[in-house]
Design goal:
binds NADP nicotinamide-adenine-dinucleotide phosphate; TIM Barrel; alpha/beta; 293 residues; AKR; single chain; 8-stranded parallel β-barrel
Length: 293
Amino acid sequence: MVPKVSERIPSVGLGTFRLKGEVVQQPLRDAIRLGYRHIDTAAIYRNEKEIGSILQELYRDESNQLSRSDLWITSKLSPYDMENPRASLLQSLSALQTDYLDLYLIHWPAVVRKVPTNPMHKILRLEAWRALNEAKREGIVRNIGVSNFTPNHIQEFLHETDYGIQGIFVQMEIHPWYWRDAFEIQTKFSKHSLVLTGYALLAEGKLSNSSCPEILETIRERLGITRVQVILAWVLYKGWTILVKSEDVTHLEQNLAADKMVRLLTPEDCAAIDAISSEGEEEKRCWDPRAVV
Ligand SMILES: NC(=O)c1ccc[n+]([C@@H]2O[C@H](COP(=O)([O-])OP(=O)(O)OC[C@H]3O[C@@H](n4cnc5c(N)ncnc54)[C@H](OP(=O)(O)O)[C@@H]3O)[C@@H](O)[C@H]2O)c1
């Protein structure tokens, strides 16, 4: 039996970073119409209010047959609000016009405006983890997790809190030039039923420029799919879920369809994509938490 959306995170989610304010409205409407059921937002994306009102509009229109329980909504605690996790969560719930979130993440392992070695980061991370666990117990969030945390940051929750990390969700940058840290996290915490979600899968434009590796073109041609679909299917093949942002209906459609292309990839294809980067020479493209103590 296929699990209900509320029971398992959908494999492909709509990213909404940079879709600030009203810009999010059309891509969100298009995505829901196409069948997206996971929406990823964050307090710092400044679009929770607009997402909340579009969703209300979509629920009201009976022809959509859409209700809150059909969706998986993720939001994140802002690094500006690390000192007020509960108030920040309540604000996200109110903006999104919902009684609960399917997933709430600590967006970043540090608080803003402090050097990475400041001891306050760790104090606030542990405090935020306590607040998220209590919110989960209360039922206003169904699942909790972290984003952009290193294995050491995650380990602290295991060793230095009473809450542990069972069923933790981890969202992080993943693409062919940077995937081994995700693999390390998955391996290290596998017995805790960790769920990994990748973002920036197109490596911030690297896929579309002239340095795009030949192997992606070879696989794309053989399978008759797009280069982006090859990458998305490669991440899904590893058992991870994905987020992609697009304002283009064709791209939205292609990205959602990547889920059906996983079975086309062979283990050899995946190994060849793994080998696009070498261990020790990975190229992280987004913000880097490794200096945060
Ligand atoms: N936790 C974090 O710290 C964090 C950080 C970054 C992102 N995220 C989440 O992950 C989501 C995805 O990451 P992202 O938005 O940075 O980057 P992304 O989804 O990897 O890439 C977005 C770019 O790729 C293009 N694109 C999308 N699908 C395409 C396709 N099929 N073919 C060609 N181009 C395509 C989009 O252009 P078009 O609009 O023209 O299609 C857009 O310019 C975010 O929106 C956010 O929800 C989380």
